[in-house]
Specification:
This protein has eight helices and no strands. It has 171 residues and is mostly helical. The protein has one domain. α1 runs antiparallel to α4 and α2 packs antiparallel against α3. Keywords: Signal. It comes from Roseateles flavus. This is DUF2059 domain-containing protein.
């Protein structure tokens, strides 16, 4: 009986400590994954691609490109975001899952995905923007129709007349 109690206690202790260990490894594994993903470079390229797409749509922004890049570097840099990104990944994945992802991204296919994802995301954004632009008139019509519908549902919004004005009209 004494041996059974010790064994049960040992298993419970190991179980609880492994739960704590798994929870503690997620942030470490998340940071390692972000480094493997070369997220600093990917983030910088994504910012530049996004900014260039915006400038392409609004050419008047060309003279401000460097100012906008400085602003983005200040608030959207990898170093400034890393802790929050680690938290996000650590909340969504276990340490073991993050390690598995990291191992994948260290393979040739994983490295290729890391290399190509920024360009693919940029192309996807441009495709989406072209599609929206091509149908912008339809969106405007839908917004106009919804505005009219909402306005027709509102009670009359005429200003209430003051009692003195109502008395003048009665005379």
């Amino acid at each position: 009986m004494k041996h059974l109690f010790k064994t049960t206690l040992a298993i419970a202790t190991l179980g609880f400590s492994s739960l704590g260990f798994a929870a503690d490894t997620a942030p470490v594994e998340a940071a390692r994954l972000l480094d493997t993903l070369n997220l600093q470079r990917v983030l910088q390229e994504s910012i530049e691609t996004s900014l260039d797409a915006q400038i392409q749509r609004q050419p008047k922004l060309v003279p401000y490109r460097e100012v906008m890049l400085k602003f983005m570097a200040k608030y959207m840099s990898y170093e400034g975001l890393k802790d929050e990104l680690v938290d996000i990944y650590a909340k969504e994945f276990t340490g073991e899952e993050l390690a598995t992802l990291r191992e994948f991204y260290q393979t040739p296919v994983g490295r290729k995905a890391i290399e190509r994802l920024p360009a693919l995301m940029g192309q996807g954004m441009q495709m989406g923007q072209r599609r929206v632009q091509a149908h912008l008139g339809e969106l405007e019509d839908m917004i106009k129709a919804e505005t009219e519908r909402l306005q027709s549902q509102q009670p009359s919004q005429q200003p209430a007349q003051a009692p003195a004005q109502q008395q003048k009209k009665a005379k």
